[in-house]
Write a structure and sequence with these properties.
heterodimer; A: about 700 residues; alpha+beta; Nucleotidyltransferase, domain 5; Rossmann fold; Dna Ligase, domain 1; 9-stranded mixed beta sheet; 38 strands; B: about 575 residues; 7-stranded antiparallel beta sheet; 5-stranded antiparallel beta sheet; 22 strands
């Protein structure tokens, strides 16, 4: 990177658009502006110009962008009118999905409408078997008739998914050629391009999502570039993908299914970068905002990826067992456990006498009772105000005045009264219950895979993460917490530390030892040449690209795979990978199956150009005046105790014991008794538990 | 327990228990071999206190909700005084703690030094358990001895030592020992996870305190359940639904239930239900209770924890010797069918108490298809799957088309996974138009599935129903359409019975239609716009729109002729 180059990180969320501006390793500016859903570019431009100030827009090298535009299009049913062409006899695969409903015992569930309605799902006679052998040849004329019918129906974007096409793409390709007579190429999504993997519903759903959001994402990115260009910012726009790598706009437009979970991925990638800088090999990231908390695991500086994700699935249960409510995307996605616990989460007591926090949320409007915007419900933020953890007069560095007496009244009325306990115990209870639901989420992404969380470090960010982090870590047996600078802007800063990445995959099923090594290397070569083309078009020489081969493997007969690294395309590399699989299986599930053979299911190829950014930025923001001490309550049979309140800059590398509260513009760090706080040279606050496990 | 427990800690212990139970269930899902476990999640996990009372269940399957208490009773009866660290008990005998032979239960005591803290348990449906038919779901057995390998409460591990004979016995008695043992290993791993979790809780909260918390968790759940029941209108509500037959003797087989809601308690009395039958569809009492628990839970609004406190206000009366509480040696393997019908009857009765909440009859997982045989090299294959239809029309919305039963929530097997593993090719899977019970809110559509058999020889075994007695409608809604089975051989199709075992030959095509679900409310009140949407999507035909709903759809591009529709509807009122 040339010295003095300016970069912009832009994170568009549902409520706010965060823009940060960096020069080398300095954070020069940040802006939080209300998102503009009718034309997201408006808020982005506004934020960009504000942070630029006097800097020359022509000097912006690139813009890294996380966006919810694709997700929102799906959730709000604003995507393209989408058609699907599929194998005769199977047009309802998309709608029936996995058959399951998301919440047990719920008789009121209504399935979200399929993204390609039944009238626009057309069948053609064709069939290949699982070996790729053609059973029923395809008729090009029938494909053309289907294409004409879709044109007549006003379809804007078409998905094609045939059974077993992962084993032989010929029929889809031929259908695609016929479609090209009637639709522009960029309005056609073939499942063999989007996801050449086994499991027809997964492949169909992913391809249809791609087709559904493609026109919208394409015009959105084109429009954004134009508007930025008119303001003098002519630098390329790079887009965050769900797996945490970035791509250029052209690739994102072609494969928009990859950018669905763009926003949440950014925070986890930022945490991974921070972990690398600090040399932390095992990390759990906790991003807690106003409505939800998201947890992820990071090992060896890489976020864990999940093989699939459901757009719009309900996340009211901490349990991840019940799925099926949303639109399935079978693409590598940063593995997040998201639960409805944030500052705005409503506290209530049920008829049995149990206390619940969330998933219902008071949102930003009316918000917590203390906001005085008409909210009557006690929220988690109200509980934290009652406990003295949050400032009693105003939040967001003084910009949001609050009324602490309203918090007390709400907690008294809705929690303390029904439980027959005091107000502070009730607030404390809500705080702990929120922690325990987050603990459940953290466990689901860690111990589910056989990991021992006690050996992990927690990286906490988002407006509310640092309020809850230390005690939550304690109940997980975690003894160290890191809170990065500007925790509320951490995700958008993280965008600027991200690597350029392409992930490609292909199903190729066979028993290790029996599979024809030539087939394996041919398939791998195919993936590599696709990756080469992709990076070439992004302007990166292949010599600059780091590559990684991974294999999805399982024991013969199992239905789920584990992903393990592989060295190359030789028989011995395969055997080595099979050994790695067996070790990982033992690590994850506690046993090896000595009598079972190992089966290869899917090849994965990852190409990556590492970001030049060191991942640490120094801010020049002046600290506000030191706040006065206030009473805070930490339970354990004690009383409210006068607790010192400091700013981050007051912390040094010698530990300050809790209880202590660190107030900053965009967050508050609570250091409970038994914990101590230091601040390292990069501005990270480190919280350490005196006794290890609490 | 005189000291008042901290209410918050009770919540925290409850969350921790839920988390452990989830981890146990996930362990099975991730490590099991059979798709019935990994895809359909036909499994459960549980923790019990030192007295054997269920304190949490990791549920993926509502129908397992009441099956742990009877299992624990059986284990405690057999081993009560000799339970020691390192033991793991196994059972599957439906007359001694189980519900049918393919469901294997494992129970492991949790000790902290010499003190018994509780138990961890896992339940999994295995793909084969021996017996006369592959898949362990045959309904043509007439006594339990034909149904497979029967395990009374036995030690699988004795003080930490694996019982090698038992595994060998098991593997000699099943068709696919490799899969069964693999799935059993997954269950052991789950129990291990539960064991460690409970020890962790003891370390955090202390052994004595923990007992108090467990007790209070049960009490709280009981209070919540009683609160919910007390909101239901008092009264007696009766309903009878029917199973066509048991595959051996002519039917029908009535399932009669009388629900009595009195204050904060509820009784489901099955007096008047048919005597036990020869075929394997008898439901042991534990399973009957489970079904009632699952149905009642569906009409409650609170988030109810899964523990035995919930069972306390609910009483199930099932006379001995009936199909809902059979005596040995009645065959029980295919009792799932009866559970679905029990649920239909219980929901029918609940609808009388709660007409605004309860849907018309769904088409649950009645259908079980198993295909088994041998490859030319002598290796055996077993294919087993359960098919579901759709939800019934609801007082407020249409039934969901193509959705697992409300009481089991199975997922389906991907077609491509079946084809990659079995000598089968699927030729159709989707909705059957015009097949739902009409109503203001229509029932969900029937589902078609076709299997082409690609080996020389095999055996097809079916458990299907609803040929004669169709899914009922409510509040003026119509019944759903019947299910059917067809075999196409050499280009000629013939109807086959609902519960049959027949030989398959290469290229035979087996076609099954799951029944359509019942409708809710007067079809003449259905919004014409909703009828039009269904016509556009090909879910119903124009003639069906006219016949069932009195809606006249015209035009090349379908649109409603409102005038003609009003005329049509008026003549029918």
């Amino acid at each position: 990177m040339t010295a003095g180059e300016i970069r912009l990180g832009v994170d568009v969320g549902g409520t706010f658009t965060d823009v940060v501006l960096t020069r080398d390793s300095d954070l020069l500016g940040a802006a939080k502006v209300p998102s503009s859903p009718t034309d997201y570019a408006e808020a982005i431009l506004d934020g960009a110009l504000r942070t630029l100030g006097d800097n020359d827009p022509a000097r912006v090298r690139d813009i890294v962008h996380a966006t919810t535009v694709a997700t929102n299009a799906i959730l709000e049913n604003r995507g393209a009118r989408t058609g699907l062409i599929t194998t005769k006899g199977f047009r309802d695969i998309l709608e029936i999905g996995r058959l399951r409903y998301p919440r047990l015992y719920d008789l009121t569930w209504v399935r979200p409408p399929p993204l390609a309605r039944r009238a626009l799902r057309l069948e053609v006679a064709e069939r290949v078997d699982n070996q790729g052998t053609v059973i029923t040849p395809i008729d090009g004329g029938e494909c053309e008739r289907a294409a004409r019918r879709l044109v007549r129906e006003g379809v804007e974007s078409v998905a094609v998914c045939f059974l077993n096409s992962y084993a032989n793409p010929a029929h889809e390709r031929l259908c695609g050629e016929m479609l090209e007579k009637y639709f522009p190429r960029e309005r056609i999504s073939l499942s063999v391009d989007v996801l050449p993997q086994i499991r027809e519903y997964d492949r169909t759903s992913t391809t249809v999502i791609n087709a559904y959001v493609r026109p919208l994402v394409e015009s959105y990115l084109a429009n954004l570039s134009t508007e930025l260009g008119e303001a003098g910012i002519q630098s390329p726009v790079l887009v965050m993908q769900s797996h945490g790598g970035i791509v250029d706009s052209a690739s994102a437009s072609e494969m928009p299914a990859q950018i669905i979970e763009s926003g949440p991925a950014a925070g986890v990638v930022a945490a991974a970068k921070l972990a690398r800088n600090l040399g932390l090999e095992r990390v759990i990231s906790l991003d807690m905002g106003g409505t939800t908390a998201k947890a992820a695991t990071i090992e060896d500086f890489e976020p864990h990826l999940s093989a699939e994700y459901e757009v719009g699935s309900q996340m009211s249960w901490a349990s991840r067992l019940n799925r099926g409510g949303g639109y399935l995307l079978r693409l590598p996605t940063v593995d997040l456990a998201e639960i409805g616990a944030g500052g705005g989460s409503i506290i209530r007591v049920d008829a049995g006498g149990s206390l619940h926090v969330g998933p219902q949320s008071a949102g930003a409007d009316p918000g917590p009772a203390c906001y005085s915007r008409g909210g009557e419900d006690a929220t988690l933020t109200d509980a934290n105000v009652v406990l003295g953890y949050l400032n009693q007069d105003a939040l967001v560095g003084g910009e949001l005045p609050i009324d602490a007496t309203k918090s007390r009244r709400a907690v008294e009325r809705q929690v303390a009264g029904p439980l027959g306990i005091g107000c502070r115990e009730a607030a404390r209870g809500a705080h702990l219950v929120a922690n325990s639901t987050m603990v459940r989420a953290v466990r689901s992404v860690s111990t589910e895979r056989g990991r021992d969380v006690r050996t992990y470090t927690l990286i906490a960010f988002g407006g509310n993460g640092p309020v809850h982090a230390a005690e939550m870590a304690g109940s997980l047996g975690i003894s160290e917490v890191v809170v990065p600078p500007s925790p509320g802007l951490f995700s958008s800063i993280g965008l600027l530390t991200t690597d350029l990445e392409r992930h490609l995959s292909q199903t190729l099923i066979g028993i290790v030892g029996e599979i024809d090594a030539a087939r394996y290397s041919t398939a791998l070569d195919g993936l590599e040449s696709r990756a080469r083309r992709a990076f070439k078009s992004m302007g990166h020489p292949w010599s600059a690209v780091e590559t990684k081969i991974e294999l999805d493997m399982r024991y013969e007969g199992q239905s789920f795979e584990l992903t393990v690294p592989a060295e190359g395309a030789t028989a011995s590399a395969l055997r080595k990978a099979a050994d790695a699989f067996e070790s990982e299986h033992e690590r994850t599930y506690g046993h090896r199956a000595h009598d079972s053979r190992v089966e290869l299911v899917t090849l994965r190829f990852v190409g990556r150009v590492k970001s030049a950014s060191a991942g640490a930025f120094t801010t020049r923001a002046e600290p506000p005046a030191a706040p006065a001490p206030r009473p805070a309550y930490f339970g354990r049979g004690g009383d409210y105790e006068t607790t010192e309140v400091v700013t981050r800059s007051a912390l040094r590398d010698s530990p300050r014991p809790g209880p202590l509260i660190v107030e900053e513009y965009d967050s508050t760090i609570v250091v409970p008794p038994g914990w101590s706080a230091t601040c390292d040279a990069s501005g990270n606050v480190r919280l350490v538990s005196a006794g290890g496990a609490a | 327990m005189t000291k008042r427990l901290d209410p918050i800690t009770i919540d925290l212990v409850g969350h921790a228990l839920g988390s452990i139970a989830d981890e146990m269930a996930l362990t099975i899902i991730r490590t099991a071999h059979s798709s019935n476990l990994t895809n359909s999640m036909d499994l459960s996990s549980a923790l019990c206190d030192a007295k054997g009372r269920l304190i949490v269940q990791g549920l993926t399957l509502p129908l397992h909700l009441g099956s742990v208490p009877d299992c624990m009773d059986a284990v405690l009866n057999r081993f009560g005084d000799e339970i020691r660290p390192g033991d793991v008990y196994i059972l599957n005998d439906p007359y001694d703690g189980g519900t049918h032979l393919p469901d294997i239960y494992l129970v492991q005591p949790v000790f902290l030094e010499d003190r018994l803290l509780g138990y961890t348990a896992s339940i999994a449906h295995h793909t084969d358990i021996g017996g006369k038919v592959a898949g362990g779901n045959g309904c043509d057995a007439t006594e339990i001895y034909q149904e497979g390998f029967r395990i009374p409460p036995t030690r699988l591990f004795d003080g930490g030592q694996r019982n090698p004979w038992l595994e060998q016995l098991l593997s000699r008695n099943v068709r696919i020992p490799y899969q069964v043992l693999g799935d059993l290993r997954a269950q052991i791993a789950a129990c291990h996870v539960g064991h460690e979790g409970m020890l962790g809780l003891a370390a955090e909260y202390g052994v004595d305190a923990l007992e108090g918390y467990f007790e209070e968790i049960l009490n709280r759940t009981e209070r919540l359940a009683r609160h919910e029941i007390s909101r239901m209108p008092d009264g007696e509500y009766e309903f009878t639904d029917y199973i066509d037959d048991d595959g051996i003797d002519p039917g029908p087989i009535p399932i009669k239930v009388r629900l009595t809601i009195e204050g904060d308690s509820l009784t489901a009395d099955f007096t008047g239900t048919a005597p036990q039958v020869k075929g394997g569809i008898n439901s042991v009492i534990a399973f009957t209770k489970s079904t009632v628990y699952a149905c009642v839970r569906c009409v409650m609004e609170s988030e109810m924890p899964n523990n035995s406190g919930y069972f306390r206000p609910i009483k199930v009366v099932a006379p001995e010797g009936t199909i809902v509480n059979p005596n040995p040696p009645a065959a029980v393997a295919a009792r799932g069918l009866t559970a679905f019908r029990i649920a239909d009857a219980v929901f029918g009765a609940l609808a009388k108490a709660l007409p605004d909440k309860v849907p018309a009859c769904e088409m649950g997982g009645d259908t079980g298809v198993s295909i088994g045989g041998y490859y030319p090299n002598g290796d055996s294959y077993v294919f087993l799957e359960f098919l579901h239809g759709s939800w019934g029309g609801r007082p407020f919305a249409d039934g969901v088309d193509g959705c697992a039963s409300t009481i089991v929530n199975f997922s389906n097997n991907p077609v491509e996974m079946i084809e990659a593993r079995q000598p089968l090719r699927l030729e159709a899977f989707g909705y059957i138009p015009d097949s739902s019970g009409p109503g203001k809110y229509r029932g969900g559509l029937a589902i078609l599935r076709e299997y082409r058999f690609l080996q020389d020889r095999g055996i097809l075994q079916l458990r299907t129903d609803r040929y004669d007695h169709l899914p009922y409608g409510l509040a003026g809604g119509g019944t759903g359409t019947p299910s059917r089975n067809v075999l196409v051989r050499d280009g000629r199709s013939r109807k086959i019975g609902g519960k049959v075992t027949i030989d398959l030959r290469r290229d035979d095509l087996y076609r099954h239609a799951v029944a359509g679900a019942g409708g809710h409310g007067d079809p003449m009140e259905r919004d014409p716009a909703a009828v039009l949407e269904d016509v556009i999507d090909g879910k119903i035909s124009r003639s069906h729109a006219l016949k069932a709903y009195g809606v006249v759809v015209t035009g090349g591009r379908p649109r409603i002729d409102l005038e003609a529709t009003n005329r049509e509807r008026n003549t029918r009122r």
